[in-house]
Amino acid sequence: MPPHSPFCLEMTQWGVFGSERAPRILYKGCTSPPPLQTLQHTLYTYCVEQQLVHPESRPYMPHITVARRYQSGHANSAFDLSSLSTEKQNEPPLKWVAHSVVIYESRIGHTPMYHPWRIMPFHSI
């Protein structure tokens, strides 16, 4: 992997993958600065070329998964994302610096399901 310098990420909006009535994933989005876009493109291209992953038709969406398989307990009730928006207007968003990339392997049926496959610290360019 070519050298990458650490870069800043910032939390953004709440969202779901799947329908709001039956979402598969609840997530908190994060910014996509140019260094992250470059890193994602480099890793994705390598993984596809090495046949480690299948080509993806969906656009890249940086996020942190908060919950899977949400169930509201109420039939036909939409997921209310506004109920999670407790951030105040004057409160600064959560920010952090990415110093490495970790690629996880999914081990279906195991606990924990995600296992670090590769950990690659960034080195300043």
Automatic annotation (TrEMBL):
GO molecular function (one): ligase activity
This protein's species is: Marinicrinis sediminis
| Top-level lineage group | Bacteria
**Gene3D superfamilies membership:** Cyclic phosphodiesterase (3.90.1140.10)
What keywords appear on the UniProt entry?
A: Hydrolase, Ligase
Keyword Ligase applies: yes
Q: Name one Pfam family in it.
A: 2_5_RNA_ligase2
Q: What is this protein called?
A: 2'-5' RNA ligase family protein
